[in-house]
């Protein structure tokens, strides 16, 4: 019997000093201040451990890990135009990956029904051998790989709703049929990857699902994709664990993109995923990615956690966190048709 939901964090996230940068420590303090005012929404707070180098090396090259460690030990510096390290960055990155791994362990062990790992730096842009896009290590990929390799799962689903395509996670599992990667993201937008035709390779063909949406897409498009594509994919794949790359920069007030999702939209997506996970007996957890408008980010995280813990069972086929049915939007219909070769029951 699962206990209380969990909220994982660590003070090292605040020591990742990026200076005048949208990916700033204030993101974490805004989230935690909001949740504290709401009694942490019933979550037990857990301090995250540092990830083991063994788990990290299962995803990232030794040269990449050492390069991040060495630059941080020298006091930090600019890795690229977007990605900054400070003296505290390596430790923060170890705990960010460690928090995601610890979340997966708690969920798989049945010690928590759902949870949220809220750390920085974020992770989904980091590739096997490169830090980029504010990200040093791919936290959610490390957790998913750990769930398969160390916890013995055969099927893990990663759903990425960050407005930017999770190119790192996409590439890490591109040839893998044990991890189903599904991403809704704005296109065109940084990093320029995630085309609808990128469907994986080799034994992983069909297990990479990219669902690009145009600038201006909002709750209706996102909810339709979740209810009519992501949820049916989950039913067909039958994951033993679902992890959400919960970046909230698709919010209508976020300064780095042009999508129009609201807190209600994030809640509806989370409610739909909660419903399908309950029907499958799969635990669900969120790993923080982007979100750069502080108060909208904090409200969206809270809305997500509330939806994951909702008492009344929402209708997974309609995403009815708000009680309204969502039809099949053109972007969802096109995705169903595109994916029918690999997932024939999608429509």
The spatial strand order of the largest sheet comes to: 2-1-5-10-9-6-7-8
User: Any idea what the CATH superfamily is called?
Assistant: Histone deacetylase domain
Got a strand count? 10
Counted by DSSP, the helix tally is 10
Low-pLDDT stretches are 311-323
In short:
This protein is α/β, with parallel strands linked by helices. It has ten helices and ten strands.
Give an account of the 3D structure.
- The radius of gyration is 18 Å and the shape is globular.
- The chain has an eight-stranded parallel beta sheet with strand order 2-1-5-10-9-6-7-8, with helices on both faces. A two-stranded antiparallel sheet has the order 3-4.
- It is α/β, with parallel strands linked by helices.
- The protein has helices spanning 26-37, 53-57, 62-73, 89-108, 139-149, 167-172, 219-237, 263-280, 294-308, 330-339; strands spanning 6-9, 44-47, 76-78, 84-86, 114-117, 156-160, 179-186, 208-213, 241-246, 284-288.
- It is built from ten helices and ten strands.
Chart the SSEs and their pairings.
Elements: E1 6-9, H1 26-37, E2 44-47, H2 53-57, H3 62-73, E3 76-78, E4 84-86, H4 89-108, E5 114-117, H5 139-149, E6 156-160, H6 167-172, E7 179-186, E8 208-213, H7 219-237, E9 241-246, H8 263-280, E10 284-288, H9 294-308, H10 330-339
Parallel strand pairs: 1-2, 1-5, 5-10, 6-7, 6-9, 7-8, 9-10
Antiparallel strand pairs: 3-4
Task: Label this structure with key terms.
alpha/beta, 37% helix, 347 residues, 10 strands, 8-stranded parallel beta sheet, 10 helices, Arginase, Chain A, 14% strand
């Amino acid at each position: 019997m699962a206990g209380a939901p969990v909220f994982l964090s660590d003070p090292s996230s605040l020591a990742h000093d990026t200076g005048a940068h949208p990916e700033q420590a204030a993101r974490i303090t805004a989230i935690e201040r909001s949740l504290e005012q709401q009694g942490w929404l019933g979550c037990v707070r857990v301090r995250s451990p540092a990830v083991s180098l063994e788990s990290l090396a299962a995803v990232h090259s030794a040269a990449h890990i050492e390069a991040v460690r060495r630059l941080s030990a020298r006091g930090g510096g600019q890795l690229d135009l977007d990605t900054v390290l400070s003296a505290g960055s390596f430790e923060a990155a170890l705990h960010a990956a460690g928090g995601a791994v610890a979340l997966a362990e708690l969920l798989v062990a049945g010690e928590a029904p759902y949870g949220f790992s809220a750390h920085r730096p974020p992770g989904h842009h980091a590739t096997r051998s490169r830090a980029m896009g504010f990200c040093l290590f791919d936290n959610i990929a490390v957790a998913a790989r750990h769930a398969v390799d160390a916890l013995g799962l055969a099927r893990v689903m990663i759903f990425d709703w960050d407005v930017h395509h999770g190119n790192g996670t996409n590439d890490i599992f591109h040839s893998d049929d044990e991890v189903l990667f599904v991403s809704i993201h704005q296109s065109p937008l940084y990093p320029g990857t995630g085309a609808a035709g990128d469907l994986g390779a080799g034994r992983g063909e069909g297990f990479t699902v990219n669902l690009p949406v145009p600038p201006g897409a909002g709750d209706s498009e996102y909810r339709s994709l979740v209810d009519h594509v992501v949820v049916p994919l989950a039913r067909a794949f039958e994951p033993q664990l679902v992890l959400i790359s919960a970046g909230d920069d698709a919010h209508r007030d976020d300064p780095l993109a042009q999508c129009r999702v609201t807190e209600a939209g994030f809640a509806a997506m989370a409610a739909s995923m909660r419903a399908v996970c309950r029907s499958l007996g799969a635990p669900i957890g969120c790993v923080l990615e982007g979100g750069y408008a502080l108060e909208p980010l904090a409200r969206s995280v809270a809305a997500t956690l509330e939806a994951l813990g909702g008492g009344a069972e929402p209708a997974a086929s309609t995403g009815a966190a708000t009680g309204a049915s969502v039809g099949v939007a053109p972007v969802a219909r096109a995705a169903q048709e595109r994916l029918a070769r690999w997932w024939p029951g999608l429509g």
